[in-house]
Amino acid sequence: MEKLRMETVNLTDRNIDKIAELFPNCVTEMMDKSTAKLKRGINFKMLKQMLSEDVVDGNEAYEFTWVGKKKAMIEANKPIRKTLRPCKEESVNWDTTENVYIEGDNLEVLKLLQEGYLGKVKMIYIDPPYNTGKDSFVYDDDFKQSKEEYEEYLELYEDGNRMHKNTDTNGRFHSDWCSMMYSRLRVAKNLLSDDGVIFISIDDNEVENLKKICDEIFGENNFVSLLATVLNFKGNNDEYGFAGTHEYTLVYTKTIKGVKFSNLLIKDNKEIEKWKIDEKGYYKQGANLKSTGINAPRSKRPNLYFPVYIDENLNISLERTSVNDVEVFPTTNDKEMSWRWSKSKMYNNIEDIIVKKSNSEISIYKKQRPDEEMPSTKPKSLFYKPEYSSGNGTETLKKLFNNKIFDHPKPIKLISDFIEIILNKDDIILDFFSGSATTAHAVMQLNAEDGGNRKFIMVQIPEVCDEKTEAYKAGYKNICEIGKERIRRASKKISEDNPDAKFDGGFRVFKVDSSNMKDVYFAPEEYTQDMLDETESNIKEDRTSLDLLFGCVLNWNLPLDKPFKTELIDGFEVHTYNGEFIACFDSNVSETLVKEIAGRKPPKLVFRDASFNNSPSKLDIEQIIKSISPDTQIRVL
């Protein structure tokens, strides 16, 4: 029986596989310094030549770099031996919910999710630290450098040494932030679906650097917009020179082809009043059908000069139906002009014309239909609504908790509008800087309003609250406690405000921890036989069967939100995860149990080493399973 890997995939190896498919001559062998063994690698000189029509020579090229970038690249690709431990007692509707809340360093979480959610996330929204000098910079990824290391690096790029480096960044302050963002965005891209979109909130401090990072990771051709996002229309008078009104939202697609951005539904009552309904649906008065501009005169477009006839009920026709019909030509101040539509188009779209009469003047307009079924408007690059006010975000949270327990939460309406633009009603949204969980709140609110079943994944490092803050005084020791409680309270309030609404207000909580497996599991060759004999189990003593179950979920690249059942068979605890695999982690399993679960013919089946009395027992059980269900994959921990 094969063992499960129980560590994240090595992205470097995967990238080498992809290059090997295109350029097999660029794959070579090199010495692994850590193991002193040969491993596969890339001949970068050959790869450069394969991607160039000319002879590759010299170092001059355009690129954006900073101190620590190479380490950030390595960090993004490096596999980890971590797991996600389920926390059922902190969850809501554990058995039925499809939402997920994960506590831990988001880089580790992204790596743990990258296989199970590979290409499955339709939208990512993040509101990362803005690097103002006041942010709590809590992500330690081993790529921060000492002053000595930094100065040594700079010596390589003295004036006159024209290397291919762009040194417009300003030292370690920016470098640390760039490294943090680079590695996380590099891994996050893998989770996006091909038609997926990422929205990133940012301010002036790092917007230029962030755009360069995103251009490199997502591709300049997948840049959609840099939205000026107005959060303070009155302006912040504390800012130098100008009263700041806005932040920015960077928008990129995974692959720009095929991505559909929806219009925003019009929900303002005054705007809705402008729309009427006929047998085709909503419409409002559109453009005048009489042409204007330099090409409007009859002499320029003679075929578009013709009469239409208006009866006393303001119905339009291309032929006179009564002596009382009024003949109307496209004229302006007695000058002969032209119609925007031809006769045939007028005839075919006669029901989409509005006739208005003011005094003795008759005007003819087209009916403007919404792009969607309901009245909507295309989002503008100046992203502004009164509901986007940062004060609204603060006030919403304050009302939920009866206290101001979090600084600068994003307004719900801002996030829900982003969601409305890109997400379908069954899609997944990920927020890996989730803070106070505004994104989760927005998802639940929108689902309650339109009957959607959008799912969220919130990720937040358990950053400790300062003892002087209202949050700490209220009993919230870290930001994750605030986020989880907000989801609980928001779900309750949405249900109270919308008693007939059906939406998923629950979430499964997971926490990043060290591997479920002891070190001996990964490197048995480093242990003597005596040491192995003394080791009763590969599995750490504090791990539960639920811990092991979700360790297998991650190892087999499955989502965390699927239903599963736990039952007793012949006195042994058995888990069935969404029909994907069956697991039993009890010791000394019986033949009755083995025959029962093999008879269900699961695609995969997992035991632990301690499930068997000895090696012959393991072989016997394997033979029993294969005789009953030959296609079942069998694995052990």
Automatic annotation (TrEMBL):
Name listed for the protein in its UniProt record: DNA methyltransferase
What UniProt keywords apply to this chain's record, in alphabetical order?
A: Methyltransferase, Transferase
